Amino acid sequence: MKKSIGAKTFALPSPVWVVGTYGEDDDPNIMTAAWGGICCSGPPCVTVSLQKPRATYENIMKRKAFTISIPSSHQVAEADYAGLVSGKDTNKFAMAGLTAVKSEMVDAPFVGEFPLILECRLVQTVDLGVHTQFIGEIIDVKADYDVLDEKGVPSLEKVSPFVFSASDREYYAIGEQIGQAFSIGMKFKN
Q1: What is the mean pLDDT of residues 100-110?
Q2: What's the pLDDT tens digit per position in 69-82?
Q3: Nearest-angstrom CA–CA distance, 45 and 124
Q4: Got the DSSP string for 119-164?
Q5: Residues 38, 102: contact at Cβ < 8 Å?
Q6: What is the distance between the alpha carbons of residues 80 and 33, in angstroms, rounded to a whole number?
Q7: Which residue stretches of the chain are H helix?
Q8: Higher pLDDT pick, 89 / 64
Q9: Which CATH architecture has domain 14-188?
Q10: Average pLDDT, stretch 136-154?
């Protein structure tokens, strides 16, 4: 038996992403976002949903670009801070001791200290109500060398990202590997 708890944003978990944009006078800005994910594989695209009053919303609309900086678990305080104050009146990079790096691929900054970066060109917006969904084509992915595996791709274990739980408003580290994707379920296939 299951209990109905109503229409809530409890699709667990949500990624913790730090969205980078440029504001007025080319001021670099970041904000933490949890409403996002991969939305297309060809071309590779991500989606992130933001509220209209946010500085990042306006910045993306003007510049048609953004970055996604994915922090490691040991950077949880810095990532959380980026979602606590407004970029309209605060230099979040300076306050959190982070470095704004100008993307060579899109018109947006990324966080130099975070291990995995997605550089995105805005391709579409969808007004959903309180949030607007921004769909960005991934133009390039940058990763610190020390988070790459033997195949040269980012290792979840080495990146050590963390997730957000909307139901209890907590951050959680990602746990152990429990199975090989596209393989472990083969036991049910005829």
Answers
A1: 98
A2: 999 999 999 999 99
A3: 10
A4: EEEEEEEEE-SSEEEEEEEEEEEEE-GGGB-TTSSB-HHHH--EEE
A5: no
A6: 10
A7: 55-63, 76-81, 92-96, 156-159
A8: 64
A9: Roll (2.30)
A10: 98
Give the closest residue to 95 by CA, choosing from 110, 117, 80, 116: 80
Read off the pLDDT of each residue in 148-175 and give the average, rounded to a whole number. Answer: 96
How many Å apart are CA 100 and CA 22, to the nearest integer?
A: 10
Domain ranges of the chain: 14-188
Distance CA 17, CA 7 (A): 24
Q: What is the mean pLDDT of the chain?
A: 96
Query: b/e for 33-54, b at 16 or more Cβ within 10 A?
Result: bbbbeeeeeeeebbbbbbeeeb
State how far the Cα of 120 lies from the Cα of 39, in Å rounded to an integer. 13
SS3 call for 71: coil
